[in-house]
Amino acid sequence: MNSSLWRKSMAVPVVLTLSLGGALVAAVPANADPADLTVSSATVSGRVFTVTGNATTGDSIELLDSDGNFAVRRTTVENGMYSMSYTIPGTTSGPMNFTVQQVTQQLGEDGSQTVTADVPATFSVTSPASGDTVDSRTVTFTGTGTEGQPVNIVNADGNRIVQATPAADGTWSGTYTFPNSAAVKQTLTANELNVGPDGAARDFTITLPAAAPEFTITSPKNGDTVKSRTVTFTGTGFEGQPVNVLNAAGDRLIQAIPAADGSWSGTYTFADTDAVTQNLTANETNVGAAGASQAFSITLPAAAPAAPSFTVTSPKNGETVKSRTVQFTGTGTEGEPVNVLAEDGTRLFQTIPGADGTWSATYTFPDTVAVTQNLTANELNVGAAGAPIDFTITLPAVETAPVPTLATPVITSPKTGAKLTGSNVTFTGTGTPGSNILLAVVPTAQVKAAEAQAAKAQAKVTAPKATTPADPQDPIVVGADGTWKVTLALKANDYTAEAASFLLDAQGQPVLDANGDPVVAGPSNDVEFVLTAAVTTPAGTRTATPVATATDADGSLAFTGSNTAPIAGFAALLVALGGVFTFFARRRRGVSN
User: Which residues, other chains included, contact 71 with Cβ-Cβ below 8 Å and sequence gap of 6+?
Assistant: First the structure.
């Protein structure tokens, strides 16, 4: 039933008298003077309308909207006071009239009062108000909105600084701290986009206090991953006081001076060899505790791989190397041949760079090449990047083995004046261990004629005629104990013997001195002896003993197992003595005894 109908029926003055135990009780008309109904407050928070006041204890208070419909039904008055709240539905804003109605315990109307609810827009910013000057750079924003629908506050750059969600009563709040670098005057925008036109953007301005000096690093922040190895550091500090950024080793990367507004900035490029993770420290030591060190870490991008380049890293241009075997190293393009050339264009070697771009090769320069080597390296298949690189190195001089010296050999047996019998004569003597012995045994009569024959003999020495001894493989070699021994088969005669020593190399060739002459020593002492009887060589003579048969001197020499030309100088001396000579090739073994 509409509350206005029954209220109207009771508007006619009427007095009812009831007999209750002989007493008459008069019923007071419903529109009696409501002297005790008051409204002490009527407030709106969001869309919640709250009314409080005073009325008759035990009566009921009703709240009717402008159409006479119940908004709040039967709120009981206690201790002469009442309070009731009503959430105004819909999104309509502005002033709305309501009626506060007092109803007696007998359900009679006992007066009413009209109250107005000034309903704010569903979305609003209530604090700070536009134009306010706030006390701190940390600002709490409050307002109203639709429950559960986000409210945003955006700065002049379009960056959202606050997002808050209204509660069930429509209120919201959010706090933001403006950095010291932010301007004092802030033009802001608030919106609640999800609720349609009522949540449209609302612009407002506030004034912040001036920023107090403070040392900070604003960018990059601790833990940031930066996009480049060139990093710009920014922050705030005390005007004119240096700010330093240091690496983990304590090396200063940048120093920057804060400007009048306290801001500072500095840029540093990290090397490709620097680690991806950088643990850094910033400080402003001149301002004491306020500028104490602040540690922070950033992550750099991985270094870009270096483009391959063609180089010769070793040996370097102008370097003197220690050996004629030289290791060359460098860098180049993987899989593309690298060449190193001599000055005349001859390729010394070719090598291929590996996956890491490095190459290496070893080359031994022969002893015959010059000490100074002008070389060229190239990697022609990669174009201009592999263009020739000229460089010079200095090799060590070729080491020449020292020329050995020989002691003059001595014939120790037979002795001068010895009178021997038989057909075999054993000769012994001393000399330099390892050297070869050239033994000349000449009939004494021809020695006496030596001077007369010298000229003739010298002429024949240039084309010596070889006589093959009985065993040309057996040498006369001085043993480790410095002695030598050989047995010859001779005809009966008066002989003079003489010896000389020389050296052979591993190929059986004479060892030459710096002038190209054979290294020789001698002649030895002359030994003159007489062999008085010629006998047949016993069958038991050792086959390993070199045997030669003496002949009349004809100016020829017997050289066995060696080129005779290098010995010509010494042969001339022996030819001058006349006779037949026996030369046995060297063998690296001890002398037979």
Answer: 63, 64, 65, 86, 98
